[in-house]
Write a structure and sequence with these properties.
The complex is a heterodimer of chains A (102) and B (90). Chain A is mainly α. Chain A has three helices and no strands. In chain A, helix 1 packs antiparallel against helix 2 and helix 2 packs antiparallel against helix 3. Classes of the chains: A mainly alpha (102), B mainly alpha (90). At the A-B interface, helix 1, helix 2 and helix 3 of A face helix 1, helix 2 and helix 3 of B. Chain A: Keywords: Membrane, Transmembrane, Transmembrane helix.
Amino acid sequence: MTVRHVCALVLLVLGVAVLLLSAAALIALPRPYGRLHALTPATSLGLPLVALALAVETGPGRSAVKLLVIAALTAVGGAVTTMAIGRATAQNARLLRKDSPP
Amino acid sequence: MNAWLVASAVLLTLGLPPCLWQVYRRTPQERLAGLNLAATMCSAILLLFTEGFNRSSYVDLPLVLAVLAPAGTLVFARFLGGQAAQGEPD
């Protein structure tokens, strides 16, 4: 049990905990806008922590870079999609015009 | 059975069902939120599988999912937003 493996396991547990909290928040938070708050912790913190744990475990190299690219893509994509879903919800509730600026 | 497979089992059994439950109910926009979180959960599970089964070449699957899932969600959001009123809000 090397120090690197212990660090990877700690990051893994934190990442999985954040993902599980997001899943619970998706059900528990009030409809429909409160639930959108459950999405971003998973994409901005949960998955990047899991990817970081895997990168620490595999050690420096090309595969670690690929893992960190996945984390970055998910973090950026998560923020954008959460805003898009919020906008679609507001448009459908007629709070926003259809051609409102994004 | 190593830590990575245990983590993926935990995510499969405790993380994915709430997302599927959310996808199953209520308005299409709320279902889209469940779909978005399910995609993130599946990316994490696929990542853990690659390390758990010691197949580093499988990392391409979550990489493709990390690219396509947001794109798919944006397309859905575009169409679901389109059902809004044409004129001024009420």
